[in-house]
Amino acid sequence: MNLRIVDTQKVETFDVAYIECFTSEGNITILPGHEPAIVALKAGSPIIMHYTSGVVEEKTTCNALLDIERDALVCIEE
């Protein structure tokens, strides 16, 4: 699954198995094939990226929206 994190300075792209993230409603896990949605991420919370190799990496976001598609994710930061 392709994850792009876009901010005013750069675009980062990651190939992940799935991610975990935090919203004001609680935490969610997004797997390939997830129903399309747009969610607001909790300010200062991490996106936890799980790779197929088993490696886990965290990326902290500030004031971000996450656009979820069935096979791609776009995180847009202010």
Give structural notes.
By secondary structure, the chain is mostly beta strands. The chain has strands at 2-6, 11-15, 18-23, 26-30, 37-40, 46-50, 56-60, 64-68, 72-77. The strands form two sheets. It has a five-stranded mixed beta sheet with strand order 2-1-9-8-5, with no helix packed on it. Strands 4-3-6-7 form a four-stranded antiparallel beta sheet, with no helix packed on it. The termini are far apart. The model has no long low-confidence stretch (mean pLDDT 93).
Oligomer: single chain
Can you give the helix content as a percent range? under 10%
Distance between the termini: 23 Å
CATH uppermost class: Mainly Beta
Shape: globular
Which tags fit this structure?
ATP Synthase, domain 1; 4-stranded antiparallel beta sheet; 5-stranded mixed beta sheet; mainly beta; 59% strand; single chain; 78 residues; 9 strands
Summed up:
With 78 residues, the chain is mainly beta.
Can you lay out the helices and strands and say which pair or pack?
Elements (H helix, E strand, L loop, with lengths): L1 E5 L4 E5 L2 E6 L2 E5 L6 E4 L5 E5 L5 E5 L3 E5 L3 E6 L1
Parallel strand pairs: 1-9
Antiparallel strand pairs: 1-2, 3-4, 3-6, 5-8, 6-7, 8-9
